[in-house]
Amino acid sequence: MSFDKQIKQTLEQLSSLGIQDASQARNNLDLLRSSLGQEGFSRLLPDILSGLAGAADPDMALNNLERFVSGLAGVAPFLSLCGSRRDVLLSLITIFGASRFLSTFLITKADAGLSFLAEPDRLTHTPGKEQLSEQLAAMTNGKADDKQFYRALRIFRKQEMLRIALRDLLHKADLQEVVGELSDLAEVCLQRAFERVEAGLRKSHGGPV
User: Fold this and answer.
1) Neighbouring C-beta atoms of residue 35, cutoff 10 Å
2) Is the distance from CB of 152 to CB of 143 less than 8 angstroms?
3) In angstroms, what CA-CA distances link 53 with 92, 93, 118, 195?
């Protein structure tokens, strides 16, 4: 099947899924094909369409997916992971069609975001405050500079927000669990920030505050 014919058929399918801007959709598909290669694009296209069928905003999801793929250092790991684990592509499309904030985070750090989603327990395991605190400590320990410390804190918070949002959007957690996880995350981040400020005050005063 020629690419033009494939795209034409795909656009008809996308229209039935709620795509509003057919011209932009064609452009996004063309760019995806260019980034993934004809074989890779054809292999993932059915799963892309399946994911868009459940996306809150199919237009935004497709556009953000293209931006994400174009931001990867290489597409081979992406194709391999999506080929072996369809849930990764579904998770990406779900976020890309539902949250501009989380989409921007993923697109800005595409390779790190892909590695994050590749961990199989991310969406099934609820860490709890103790484990969250240990993970945050591991990310922030050794950050002597405040700018580096708070950057690591923001990255951790966004990663956990991404995990919690995906569990919610993919119906892997109920409302009570989501609220509980958000509360745990906020408490852990605030506690870590407080400890940082307290340590800084002790240092500046030469002893206990």
Assistant:
1) 17
2) yes
3) 13, 10, 23, 46
CA-based max dimension of the chain:
74
Structural contact between residues 116 and 162, judged by C-beta atoms closer than 8 angstroms? yes
Convert 156-169 to b/e letters by CB count within 10 Å (16 or more is b). bebbbbbbbbbbbb
Query: CA gyration radius for the chain?
Result: 20
> Angle at the Cα of 83 (from 51 to 109), degrees rounded to 5?
70
Show Cβ contacts of residue 13 under 8 Å, excluding neighbours closer than 6 positions.
Answer: 49
How do residues 138-160 score in pLDDT, each as one tens digit? 999 988 888 999 999 998 998 89
User: pLDDT tens digit string along 42-66?
Assistant: 999 989 988 998 899 999 999 999 9
156-176 pLDDT, tens digit per residue, is 998 898 889 888 887 888 899
Q: What share of the chain is helix, strand, coil (3-state, %, to 5)?
A: 80, 0, 20
- CA dist 130 and 127 (Å) reads 8
> What pTM was estimated for this model as a whole?
0.77
Q: Where are the alpha helices (DSSP H) in 17-108?
A: 22-53, 58-70, 76-84, 86-96, 100-108
Residues 6+ apart with CB under 8 A from 7: 26, 29, 30
Query: Quick check: 29 and 7 in contact, CB under 8 A?
Result: yes
